[in-house]
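Illustration 12: NAD-dependent protein deacylase.
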Amino acid sequence: MVKAMLGGDRRVVVLTGAGVSAESGVPTFRGRDGLWRTHRPEDLARPDAFAAHPELVWEFYNWRRELVRKCEPNPAHLALAALERAIPNFLLITQNVDGLHVRAGSRKILEMHGSLWQVRCTVCSHAREDHGDLPEMPECPVCGHLLRPGVVWFGEPLVPGVLRLAIEAVGKADVFLSVGTSSLVQPAASFYQLAKDHGAVTVEINLEPTPSTGFMDFALHGMAGDILPELIAGLSD
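Figure caption equivalent — predicted structure in token form:
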């Protein structure tokens, strides 16, 4: 039934979360992955933490960059890139910052929380994509001040315009897929309701039930890397 709804001229919006990248070996920082050394990641991913201990925060992010660099897109990432190529009206909204969707070939994508591979100056407007090895305290080549990771930290607003574009797309969707998300992080956790309110068919694909499961039209539980390739099989590429 879900597979049949993905064809034709339907407008499809997909929201992905940490569960998708967990299948590539990227830590979710939940459960046994919940600590980096003796620190909780949510205590480091904050503007005040960076202001007080920039060297510690950069050490954490450089560790994350090195870990993710060794990870590869999994079948779920590849299936979503193929779905984009098969459907004219498609948008992928991701809460992940690892860049694996882009490496898999996704181009119609909104990275709601930024990217590990972006850096920007804490003072001037300099920003760039950088996949190389960064020094412990990288400096801006324009003004010499400290660079910071190009991600959205706890307590910070989303990148200007990104939330507006996401809400517009979700509100126009015919089919909304929530893949690998806990349905706990706002505002993305409310997207399924926005889609449903505007008449979209809502589908959850997750390893286990979430707080949103009972409100979805369809809930498919298992590994996204198993489910998504089956859903797109037979769609023109």
